[in-house]
Amino acid sequence: MGLWARIMRVFRANTGAALDRIENPELVLQQTIRDMRDRVPELNNSVAQVMATERLLIKNHENLETQVVDLDSKIKASVKMGRDDIATAYIGQLQQAQIDMTRTGAQLEHASLASKQALKARDNYVLNMKKRTAEAMQLISAAKQAKLQEQLAQTMETFNIGDDASTFNEMREKIDRRVAAAEAKLQLGSSNVDTQMQDIEREAMDIQLQDKLLEYKSQMGLLGAGTSNSTGKQIAAESEVKEEDVLDQVIVNETNDMNRSN
What we know:
Blueprint: H1 3-22, H2 25-80, H3 84-161, H4 163-191, H5 193-219, H6 225-261
Helix pairs in contact: 2-3, 5-6
């Protein structure tokens, strides 16, 4: 194989590959449908011309038939009148009219056949165009469906790679860590020494308020002496027990916190 032939083969191969990449089947089919529809008016014009020729030949043939009948009548009238010279002239015209009529009849037969064939060809073309159009529309629908499926497959492939899944998992772990840290801080804040000391102070304030109330009642004579002393002693004893319980609980909590930190 010569060098030039090899170069041409490579050029054609590269050109064909480039066309395959840029060629859109949907657009090509749509353009094919438009081209087929654009040829219908031209085909109708051609058929109309053939049919017009047939109509013209039919009219000429009818005129020649009328002329032959008229000449025949004139010949007979000339013979009756004894005008052989005029009859002879009419006979010459009659013969020429008969020849023209015969030739026109043959042309009319060919024109009629051509008209029928043109109509049949036009009808076949229209029928084939409708069939091809329906096939093209089905192919276009299939091409659109294939394009959607390709896009869906690409989306699913991207999703299956795991990028989005790993992102969701990572964010979920971070949020879980933040929630756990917040819960731990809340728990520590509700069980630390400061909170317990506040509880003790609040209890001591309640005891002072109760003592002040009893003092007012004693001054007003609403309480007996024995009742006042016994009630005061009972309240003092209860307050001492409560303070001891609270202090014991604080010591236990501090011990537990130290053990957890160690």
